[in-house]
Amino acid sequence: MTTTTEASVRERLLASAADITAESGWAAVTMSKVATRAGVSRQTVYNELGTKPALGQAMVLRELERFLAIVERELDAADDLVTAIRSATEHILVMAEGNPLLHALLASAHSVSRGNEPASNNELLPFLTTDAQPLIAAATAVIDERLDRFPDVDLGPHQRAVAIDAIVRLVLSHVMQPGSSPAATADDLAWIVARVLRG
Amino acid sequence: MTTTTEASVRERLLASAADITAESGWAAVTMSKVATRAGVSRQTVYNELGTKPALGQAMVLRELERFLAIVERELDAADDLVTAIRSATEHILVMAEGNPLLHALLASAHSVSRGNEPASNNELLPFLTTDAQPLIAAATAVIDERLDRFPDVDLGPHQRAVAIDAIVRLVLSHVMQPGSSPAATADDLAWIVARVLRG
DNA sequence: ACTTTACAGATTCTATGGTTTTGTAAACCT
DNA sequence: AGGTTTACAAAACCATAGAATCTGTAAAGT
Question: Per the record's keyword annotation, is Oxidoreductase included, yes or no (chains A, B) (predicted)?
Answer without folding.
Answer: no
